[in-house]
Amino acid sequence: AIEAWFMDDSLEDPRLPHHRHPKELVPLDHLAELGVLYWRLNPNDYENDEELRNIREARGYNYMDLLNICPEKLENYEEKLKNFYTEHIHADEEIRYCLEGSGYFDVRDKDDRWIRIWIKAGDLIILPAGIYHRFTLDTNNYVKLMRLFVGEPVWTAYNRPQEDHPARKEYINNLTQKI
Ligand code: KMT
Ligand code: NI
């Protein structure tokens, strides 16, 4: 399964794990409470994977593309990575399926603490609309991601603060109803 943990407060290289001492692991049901969903799939032969097809059909993900995050294959690599690591929300879900390599999705919990989620090949995660998050590579410096979306994709990132954004308000509403 994926690993997730509360981050330390150090300003060192974001690509390091940033565990607290002692480690504070976050159980998967805690992520579910934040609306973060997760599947473990077989990343080999993903084009014929029935499980992936089922998820896409059930959730209406008719759009798909692939993103190779490495200096050779991603144009404006430095700028994109800088934007990915700037805390933001979206008006829609963010759906990412890791096919190769690894990386960190950081999400804010109810108390505004950073939870670091370590994504490796086979991990599909869905971040709900309105959750503050960011992304960085880890020290392997490479990831190949599938991006999924319902209809025409919109990747617009709204950087924090966004307390008046409708997606943010709805997210907070859903969170407080769960408590
Ligand atoms: C985004 O909005 O694209 C991100 O949060 C980065 C995730 S993976 C490219
Ligand atoms: Ni995002």
Provide a descriptive summary of the structure in words.
There is one protein chain. This protein is of the alpha+beta class and 179 residues long. The protein has one domain: Jelly Rolls. It has helices at 28-33, 50-59, 77-84, 166-178, and strands spanning 3-6, 37-40, 63-69, 88-89, 94-108, 114-120, 123-127, 133-137, 143-149, 158-159. Strands 1, 2, 3, 5, 6, 7, 8 and 9 form an eight-stranded antiparallel sheet that branches. The chain has a two-stranded antiparallel sheet with strand order 4-10. The longest helix has 13 residues, at 166-178. It is globular, with a radius of gyration of 16 Å. The two termini are 25 Å apart. The mean pLDDT is 97. The structure holds 4-(methylsulfanyl)-2-oxobutanoic acid and nickel (II) ion. The site of nickel (II) ion has 5 residues, from loops. It catalyses: 1,2-dihydroxy-5-(methylsulfanyl)pent-1-en-3-one + O2 = 4-methylsulfanyl-2-oxobutanoate + formate + 2 H(+); 1,2-dihydroxy-5-(methylsulfanyl)pent-1-en-3-one + O2 = 3-(methylsulfanyl)propanoate + CO + formate + 2 H(+).
